[in-house]
Specification:
Blueprint lengths: L5 H20 L11 H11 L3 E4 L7 E7 L4 E7 L5 E9 L3 H11 L1 E2 L4 E6 L2 E9 L3 E8 L2
Antiparallel strand pairs: 1-2, 2-3, 3-4, 4-8, 5-6, 6-7, 7-8
Amino acid sequence: MLLKSPSIHILRIITLSAVLMLICVFTHGQNLIGYTGNDILKYMDKNHKEMNLNNVVNNKFSYLKYSDSAGSETILFFLNPDSLCRSERIVCDRSLKILKMNELDSKYLKNGDNKWIDKHAGKIYKIELTEGEWSCIISIESEK
């Protein structure tokens, strides 16, 4: 009888962990523009426990910042003076670009290269993915 080596079990655990992490990371995709800061805190606490709220201080503008433990994704919710979300920015590792594009393709209407549209509550939102040297940035904002 052949016994499986311990390295096979470790490999299976690592693979399962990676799959679960990817499922969590790639399910953000919710447009929270118009939500209050408190509503965003509740939403993220309930739906994205893998994301950690970062304590940030900025005298020029108000925002909420979340990041994952692996350092592969950061989400910024920019708030207006009334504490309503006016735009979102998701910064992720460039290696996640294809998966992020697939997520955006599945949730939103394609509107050109690396551009999408989200329509809800009678409003139109622009979504755009731009590439940096080390990261991809997804911006979501109301169409003006």
